[in-house]
C-alpha cells in the first residue's frame, strides 16, 4: 500500500514539477514575470488532465514526434555546449570522481546527493506503461535514445556551468543558445506534458488494480482502447489528480520545493520496488539465492543511500 501511495503521489507531483520546470523558461527572457503570476502553468495542467478522457491512443500520435524532437534537440545543444565551454568534460563520466567527491566532502557530500535525484527520475516508472508498450520497445527506446540523450544533455549543462557557475539556479535554459531558445522552450513544454501522461496513465492502472483487490474505494474505470487492456481511465481519479496537482503548484509555487517532495516519492518508489521484486525473485521465480543477494545488496544499497539523503530534505518541502 505504501508503494501504491507513493506511485499515486508520483502521478500528482510529476505533472506539477514537469510543467513548472518547463514553464520556468518564460521567466528567463522576462525576469519581471513572477513565479506566482504565470497562469500558463495551470492552463497546461488543466488541458493535460482534460484530455485524459479521450484515452492514450487518441493522443499518442503526438507523443513520438514530440519526444523524438526532445531527444534529438537537447543532446545537440549539449554537444554544442561541450565544444564551446569544456571539451574535456567527458572525464567526469569516470566513476573514480564520485569516490573522490564523497571522500573529500563526507557528510556534506551525502546530503548533496539528495539534490541529484531529479536527474534519475523517470527510471522508477520506466516499465509503468507495460499496458501500452511491450518490454522490448521500452528497453530499446531507453538504451538507444533516452539514455544517450540524457547523458549528452547533462554533460553539456555541466560544461556550461563550469564556465558560468552563477547560472546554477536555471542551468537548463541558460545553457541553450539564443537562436534555439524558443523552439526548445516549446518542445520542453510539450515533452513535460508527455512525461506527465506516463505517470497519470500509470496511476489509473494501479488504482484499477487496487479496486479489483478491494484495496481502494470503487470508482468508475473506463477502457479507452479496444485493443489494449491496460489503457484505462477513471473520471473521478482524473479530476482528483487534477485538483491536487493544481493545489501542489499553488502551495509550493516553486520547482525547487516541489522537487524536494518529488525526490522523496521517487526514491521511496524505487526502494519499495526493489524490496517487492526481491520477494518475487524468492517466492515466485525461485531465483538462486546468491543472485537474489547480489541484486538486493546492489540496488538496495544505492537506493537506500539516495532515500536517506532525500529524506533530509523533508523540512525543505519533502
From TrEMBL:
Residues 1-318 form the K+ potassium transporter integral membrane domain. The chain crosses the membrane at residues 61-83, 110-128, 140-162, 182-207, 237-254, 261-284, 290-311. GO terms for molecular function: potassium ion transmembrane transporter activity. It is a multi-pass membrane protein. It comes from the Eukaryota. One of its GO terms (cellular component) is plasma membrane. InterPro entries: K+_transporter, K_trans_N. It holds the Pfam family K_trans. Keywords: Membrane, Transmembrane, Transmembrane helix. PANTHER family: OSMOTIC STRESS POTASSIUM TRANSPORTER, POTASSIUM TRANSPORTER 17-RELATED. Belongs to the HAK/KUP transporter (TC 2.A.72.3) family. This is K+ potassium transporter integral membrane domain-containing protein. It comes from Populus davidiana.
Amino acid at each position: 500500500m505504501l508503494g501504491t501511495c507513493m506511485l499515486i503521489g508520483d502521478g500528482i507531483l510529476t505533472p506539477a514539477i514537469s510543467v513548472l520546470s518547463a514553464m520556468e523558461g518564460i521567466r528567463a527572457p522576462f525576469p519581471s514575470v513572477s513565479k506566482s503570476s504565470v497562469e500558463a502553468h495551470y492552463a497546461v495542467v488543466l488541458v493535460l488532465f482534460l484530455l485524459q478522457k479521450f484515452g492514450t491512443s487518441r493522443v499518442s500520435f503526438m507523443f513520438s514526434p514530440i519526444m523524438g524532437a526532445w531527444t534529438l534537440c537537447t543532446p545537440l545543444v549539449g554537444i554544442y555546449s561541450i565544444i564551446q565551454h569544456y571539451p574535456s568534460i567527458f572525464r567526469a563520466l569516470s566513476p573514480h570522481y564520485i569516490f573522490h567527491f564523497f571522500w573529500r566532502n563526507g557528510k556534506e557530500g551525502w546530503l548533496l546527493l539528495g539534490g541529484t535525484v531529479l536527474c534519475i527520475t523517470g527510471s522508477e516508472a520506466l516499465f509503468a506503461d507495460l499496458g501500452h508498450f511491450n518490454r522490448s520497445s521500452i528497453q530499446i527506446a531507453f538504451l538507444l535514445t533516452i539514455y544517450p540523450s540524457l547523458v549528452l544533455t547533462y554533460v553539456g549543462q555541466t560544461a556550461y556551468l563550469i564556465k558560468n557557475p552563477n547560472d546554477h539556479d536555471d542551468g537548463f535554459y541558460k545553457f541553450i543558445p539564443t537562436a534555439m531558445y524558443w523552439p526548445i522552450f516549446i518542445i520542453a513544454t510539450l515533452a513535460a506534458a508527455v512525461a506527465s501522461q506516463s505517470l497519470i496513465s500509470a496511476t489509473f492502472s494501479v488504482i484499477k488494480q487496487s479496486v479489483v483487490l478491494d484495496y481502494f474505494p470503487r470508482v468508475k474505470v473506463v477502457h479507452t482502447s479496444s485493443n489494449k487492456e491496460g489503457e484505462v481511465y477513471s473520471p473521478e481519479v482524473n479530476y482528483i489528480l487534477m485538483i491536487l496537482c493544481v493545489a501542489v503548484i499553488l502551495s509550493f509555487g516553486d520547482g525547487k520545493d516541489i522537487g524536494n517532495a518529488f525526490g522523496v516519492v521517487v526514491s521511496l518508489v524505487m526502494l519499495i520496488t526493489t524490496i517487492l521484486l526481491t520477494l518475487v525473485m524468492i517466492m515466485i521465480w525461485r531465483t538462486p539465492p546468491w543472485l537474489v543477494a547480489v541484486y538486493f545488496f546492489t540496488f538496495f544499497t544505492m537506493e537506500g543511500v539516495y532515500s536517506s539523503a532525500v529524506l533530509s530534505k523533508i523540512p525543505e518541502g519533502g
